[in-house]
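Support case: WTA complex. Customer-provided input:
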Amino acid sequence: MTEASKTYPVQAEFAAKANLTPEKYREMYAASIADPEAFWSEHGKRLDWIKPYTIAKDVSWEASDLHVKWFADGELNVSANCIDRHLATRGDKPAFIWEGDDPADSHTVTYKQLHGAVCKFANVLKKLGVKKGDRVTIYMPMILEATYAMLACARIGAIHSIVFGGFSPEALAGRIVDCESEVLITADEGVRGGRKVPLKVNADAAAKIAKGMVKKMLVVRRTGAEVAMEEGRDVWLDEIGATVSADCPPEPMKATDPLFILYTSGSTGKPKGVLHGTGGYLVWAAMTHEYVFDLKEDDVFWCSADVGWVTGHTYIVYGPLANGATSVLFEGIPTYPDASRFWQACDKHQVTIFYTAPTAIRALMREGSGPVEKASRKSIRLLGTVGEPINPEAWEWYYHVVGEARCPIVDTWWQTETGGTMIVPLPGATDMKPGAGSHPFFGIQLELVDAEGQRLDGAADGNLLVTDSWPGQMQTVYGDHDRFLETYFSAYPGKYFTGDGCRRDEDGFYWITGRVDDVINVSGHRMGTAEVESALVSHDAVAEAAVVGYPHDVKGQGIYAYVTVRQGVVADEDLRRSLVQHVRAEIGPIASPDLIQFAPGLPKTRSGKIMRRILRKIAENEFSNLGDTSTLADPEVVHDLVENRQNRG
Ligand code: WTA
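Agent response - structure generated as follows:
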């Protein structure tokens, strides 16, 4: 806990040039809460509107009338906002820098070139019969065509649904069928970490499972591999692309028209199609991108996510392009050809802002500082993280080793549902506490409640709610408005339930403690699994840890810890004892793990999220029915976990 209470001021040199000061943040935040209508009417103007809106916010979270409509009577086009309006002033500025899987492979696309490519792509979609409102599924590697496909959909008013290229045919088919998408865009193969990913083969299998739903398949050549093409259904992008013009006027869209669907897993049931709209989403993406990352005209911004996740949507494509920024698109993985890759690429492209996930940071931390120090990293001025609570130890490593204590870290808390960042230590506006999400972004009103829904004031620990809408809020669950109501507004009527637990400290900083479904109750004490994990990970021997609850006769729930040790460490009884001691010392005896299982790897989704559902089942000795493991990056790890389970009672 000593680490966790540390405070770092933003470096004076950074603060002197920052877009925000503490005063400006306070002023803008107060204005955004005092009069949201006035605040967002003003900030909506950052976009180009074909027809200006007269009302910013038209939202009700009441069960009888649930609707989320921002800038409802305005009209705009997202692709025109991301491309066309920059042409006069930034035509020759790089929109994207593509860094291939092979470090020798990279390519820059200017805003002018992007315009041509997207217009052509849009005309290809039209030629394939795609119309406004149609759903188009994108199953692509991290290549430029993935972004052209997104922006082309936006240009003609089609709704894209990106399915991460690591998903199985089964998962892809389920998503295609759910949104009745007749067009699928894919590539012959993807390339990641030197390995080929058989996308077209998977797409064919998915189309088969989806039983005739897929009418057209548009295929991009990435590796030139020979793939089967089905007559009448499949077309190569380069062939059809040669037959269309590069002139495609943007379609005027209502601000509330859908922009995209993105499937995300809930704690129960099949993935839900989170639906985002046009105007509100883009205002939020652009504004958060500018303030969270202290954006300047000459920045080179690198978000290392995949476009298959919301982070890629908002902070590789829509936010940066709406701001006329230069965005890096990376095809590979952090450890290929070696653990120095991120930092080498930062040097190569003179990246100024780097944004990644704690899981990547921990993986690299395991390799020590050597690979980091192989690169200069002098261009980097700001670091960011997203996706899960970052344990203070990883934060410190990121801060001191990667950023050489020069660069502030923005720990951005948000969700697929929120469209963009919601809680963040805005750089220049606040001090940093390692591991703290810190403060709400403009317009975000937070509330902590106890299990009974009673509001908690001051320093407190509870369930995190948002009490009023923000422009980036999802509009509904595609095709299932009842599920939208049920999932987010039924636990605490009239308020948005995030599903996360959160602590507000005595200084008013917010600390996300992890999903509430992961909170455990030990002898009547509520504990964030993230807190125990953080303690474990701060032990020298530990690379990664995941903690779940399991039924315990005396305590109600016991603490079950899965631990991955660092290379060269011997995982034995002595280490077990030492870890228990360490956790007791870090948090207190109530946090002592009851069972510790050493594991070579944790079950993770391909986006790096630990699948706790599986860990909980194994911890509960209920491993015969682990449910769907198809989304795991490496399904093999599960066998080892079951073999070596510690609870056999
Ligand atoms: C978690 C990713 C702590 C949280 C953008 C949330 C975080 C879920 C952070 C959403 C963070 C995301 N600190 N926890 N900075 N960022 N989370 O939909 O539990 O993939 O509810 O969106 O990730 O995950 P999603």
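The two ends are 33 Å apart (CA to CA).

Case will auto-close in a few days if no follow-up is received.
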